[in-house]
Write a structure and sequence with these properties.
With about 425 residues, the chain is an alpha/beta fold. It has a domain of about 250 residues: Type I PLP-dependent aspartate aminotransferase-like (Major domain) (Aspartate Aminotransferase, domain 2), CATH 3.40.640. The protein contains 14 helices and 13 strands. The strands form 3 sheets. Strands 1-9-8-5-4-2-3 form a 7-stranded mixed beta sheet, sandwiched between helices. Strands 10-11-13-12 form a 4-stranded antiparallel beta sheet. It has a two-stranded antiparallel sheet with strand order 6-7. β4, α6 and β5 form a beta-alpha-beta unit. α11 packs across α14. The chain is globular, with a radius of gyration of 23 Å. The two termini are about 30 Å apart. Bound molecules: pyridoxal-5'-phosphate (PLP). Pyridoxal-5'-phosphate binds next to α3 and α4.
């Protein structure tokens, strides 16, 4: 039998993927349908857009909070207007104060850093490991006498090692705020992400697993933490609570416990969309996880590729797949070869492309730029100042990200498309010599 050599598409051969690619890489947004339209229409018909004007048993925001509590097992859930607001309210709830140091991973959306700065604290960067999330060993190394909290971020649907992070945080007596903006529905050891820390936050923004355009959630098992977040999320929280109090003593209690707040409230319209989206979340994740299981062995078969480190395979949301090549050049090379075959993928770090998920490109953090005349939060640092930023400060994160090839996964990828992607990866693997 004569063997016909396979010609890679990059060299003029036939493209392995001919099925139509998904038009976008979104999750919740792709599922918007009659349910969301009906829910929003109902709110509009009711002419009650403000959650504290709604009957608590009918409020969409209250129903969303109740469903999220049931799904995560968290005792308290607070709907807010964004993931960033949720981070800020969460930090305030955990009593993070001006001049404190807060540990965050070097690989996270810039909002994690800006939320820390918004409460007057200083972000201290921690290296990531092969799981794309905070390296627990480096986290412990970065704790100082000024560290009051850590924000582990479950990036790209992949859970952090919450066992080790919680052990270190408890031993070193620092608060934990889990950033689950990209991991709605993820678990670690069978338990919902967001319930390990003293509080957890979620985002419901356009690009997220469940999406209401804008929106966020704070979850916690601690009543005091919940109440502090709730007070901060609404500058008039005491008034609504006084109005709803069953007796004068309870009303008085609210008056006394309130402090200043912002306006981070979620509207009934956003609550309506988010509630319907949450009902669809697990179906989305069942499919993304299944697709990832299909793609995994094909990627594993690429000579020299090392798969992402999964701290909990079953708890991973399956919205991305990452493998590491031996060096940056081979990552760029194989990503180009795969892309020519029709596989949607790319390398993660490049000096040229300003990806806001990588500390290297966080200009206003790197340059300590302030919104305030007094230079806060940088001017609020205790003496002697110790926090500084340089582009080479987290070399392991950069070294890993420049060797990383990422395949984003969405539930709308069809079976024939996924099969062809698997075939394309296998074709490239057969010819890859490094
Ligand atoms: C890891 C992470 N944290 C926080 C946020 C902020 O969420 P939002 O855009 O809803 O404010 C995002 C959103 O992109 C995120 O990915």
């Amino acid at each position: 039998m004569i063997e016909i050599a396979e010609v890679l598409a990059i060299n003029g051969g036939p493209k392995a993927v001919t099925e139509p690619a998904p038009p976008n890489l979104l999750h919740g947004t792709n599922e918007i349908g009659e349910e969301e339209i009906r829910a929003v229409t109902n709110v509009l018909r009711s002419k009650v857009l403000f959650r504290y004007a709604a009957d608590p048993s009918k409020s969409t925001v209250a129903q969303l909070e109740a469903l999220f509590a049931a799904k995560t097992g968290a005792r308290y859930v607070l709907g807010v207007n964004s993931g960033t607001s949720a981070l800020i309210a969460g930090l305030i709830a955990l009593k993070v104060s001006q001049g404190d140091e807060v540990l965050i991973p070097a690989y996270t959306y810039i909002a994690t850093a800006s939320a820390v700065m918004a409460v007057g604290a200083l972000p201290v960067l921690v290296e990531m490991d092969e799981s794309l999330s905070m390296d627990p060993q480096d986290m412990e190394r970065k704790i100082t006498d000024r560290t009051t909290a850590v924000i582990p971020v479950h990036m790209r649907g992949i859970p952090c090692d919450m066992g080790r992070i919680m052990e270190i945080a408890r031993r070193r007596k620092i608060a934990v705020l889990e950033d689950c903006a990209q991991t709605n529905g993820g678990t670690f050891g069978g338990r919902a992400l967001g319930t390990f820390g003293d509080a957890g936050i979620f985002s419901l923004q356009h690009y997220k697993i469940a999406a209401s355009g804008e929106g966020g959630l704070v979850i916690t098992n601690d009543r005091d933490t919940y109440e502090r977040a709730a007070v901060y999320h609404d500058s008039a929280y005491a008034f609504w609570m006084e109005e709803r109090a069953q007796d004068p003593a309870a009303a008085e209690q609210w008056k006394n416990m309130c402090f200043l707040g912002e306006n981070f409230r979620m509207s009934e319209l956003h609550g309506a969309v988010a509630l319907e989206q949450l009902k669809k979340r697990d179906r989305i994740l069942a499919r993304t996880r299944m697709i990832k299981r299909h793609l995994w062995p094909a990627c594993e078969g690429i000579p020299g590729a090392v798969m992402e480190g999964l701290n909990d395979r079953a708890g991973d949301c399956g919205i991305s797949l990452v493998f590491f090549m031996p060096d940056a050049a081979s990552a760029v090379n194989i990503a180009a070869i795969l892309a020519a075959e029709g596989v949607r993928c790319g390398t993660v770090f490049s000096k040229q492309f300003p990806d806001r998920h990588i500390f290297y490109h966080w200009d206003y953090v790197m340059n300590k730029r302030s919104a305030h005349r007094n230079g806060a939060p940088w001017s609020l640092e205790k003496n002697p100042p110790r926090v500084s930023y340089t582009k080479d400060m987290c070399p392991r994160t950069i070294a890993l990200l420049e060797r990383a090839v990422m395949l984003p996964i969405t539930q709308i990828m069809t079976d024939p498309y996924v099969d062809q992607v698997v075939g394309a990866i296998q074709k490239v693997a057969r010819s890859w010599k490094g």
